Amino acid sequence: MLTISPGSSIAPFEQLRTQLIEQVRDGSLAAGTRLPTVRRLAEDLGIAPNTVARAYRELEADGFIETRGRNGSFVSAQGDPAEQQGQVAARAFADRIKQLGLSADDALAWVTAALRA
Question: What's the rounded Cα separation, in Å, for the pair 9 and 30?
Answer without folding.
Answer: 29
